[in-house]
Amino acid sequence: MRILKNLFLALFVTACSPGGSHGGPQTQQAPPTAQGYYQQALQELSRDSVRQSQHLLREAIRVAEREQDSHTLYLAQLQLAQSMAWSNTASALRMAKKALATYERMPDSERNHIILLDYVGTYASQLAFNDDAPFDEALSYARRAYELAVASRDTLGNELVSQTLTSLANICWAMDEHAEALRYAREAAECAPPSLQLGAQQVLARCLFSCDSLAQAEQVYRAMKPGEDLQAAYIVQSNLAKLALRRHDTEEAEAAIDEAFVQAEELYFDALQQKDEYYQASLAEERANERLRYEVILHRRTLWGVLVLGLVLLATFGFAARAQLRVAASRRIAEAWRRKHEVDERIHDTRLLRQTQHHQQQQLSAQQEMLQQRDAAISFLQDFILQRSEVIRKLGASVDRHIVLSPHEWQEVERTLNTIDGNRFALLRALYPGMREEDVQLCILTRLRLTNRAIGNIYAVSISAVQHRKLRLKKDVFGEDDPNTTLEEVLDALTMNSKEQRIKEELTH
What we know:
By secondary structure, the protein is mainly alpha-helical. Among the domains are: 34-224, Tetratricopeptide repeat domain (Serine Threonine Protein Phosphatase 5, Tetratricopeptide repeat, Alpha Horseshoe), CATH 1.25.40; 390-508, no CATH class. Helices cover 82% and strands 0% of the residues. It has 21 helices and no strands. It has helices at 2-16, 34-46, 50-67, 70-84, 89-105, 110-131, 136-151, 153-156, 159-174, 178-191, 194-210, 214-223, 230-246, 250-388, 390-397, 407-421, 424-431, 437-447, 452-459, 463-476, 487-508. Helix 5 packs antiparallel against helix 6 and helix 7 runs antiparallel to helix 9 (159-174). The chain is elongated and about 115 Å long.
């Protein structure tokens, strides 16, 4: 017994453990930390799983707040803001402000401070541009980021200075302050490292174009080296086409437009190829995950089934052993008394049993005889009444000729059936006052157990038409949609319910 208990306890622990479905002994894993959730979210982002990554980032924020992990907290908040930027700029701005507030409570790097301020300023400018609102808040954050970048230039270099100047240029350009935007863009291009040179040149060329410095803008665009960046190449060629159109140079504009279309086609087909590869990889991964989940569920259910079966067997063995102990104890205590009275009790019990069985058999036989006599009498009376009715004999006389009944004959048949069936059709007319007379007649013919062929002769229609009328009557009038239930069963159930209700009322009174 102890061995069985230990075995089922081991099965229970295995089934409840996270790795129990794989069949091997594994230790229970600790709940993920905030850093663990954050790393999982980055992996989902690398696979373009935006919804799952946002869920993991929110979990990372929740756990980081509980663990008081400020570093992971503001990183997760900033990453969530970036994820929401394209769909909901207002939510992205609020989340970026929370990240900035989290960092400023426990700062760890001046570089991160500048990046956070720049992100907040960028989201604020996007929201102001979309809502046609003032850019004061965006300028405030961007200038703070620029001032910190200039103050930290000796330690951090010119990268953050160029980045913040580019943000200021974009904000001023959105405010239609093109001269101020051009000044910031020139400074950003002068101090931009090679990694940021392409973006700084793009902003500078756009500002020159807005200030009508077309020659300088063209010079900057032609100096740009997009390399394998198809989107940047398309931007360069499309803007060169705009410049040519501005100068009314048709041939140059046509060549630039052709080149821009080539770049756009390459960009489009490259995006299509990447999209197809991504969907194929996602589909394969989803299938693998689905198969793994199915196996986990199957193994877990198997283990639970074995566990439940074992517990049932264990309980059965326990109850059996306990019952045996109780019986043994009772036998030892009452052994002498049972030996003395055993014969008398058996004789007495046998007599009582025989008397009870004999009495029950007599009652059962009497009831069966009464029911048989009553059923025979009822059947005899019903058949007798039906045989006496001339109209009913007329209906059942032949199924190969057209039969016509007068209204008086229909009334006679209905009265006869009401007498036999306890006013079945009077009840039917009371419950369904809107029934047509031809529907009542169809119910009468159905009660007489006439075949569909005989009913078709009465109405001069085909057998399929009779079946269709029965189905329509059953569905439209009685509300019965079950194709397996016949019209005869519906009428019998109606009569039975009426009888039961009448018996209940009589018993109540």
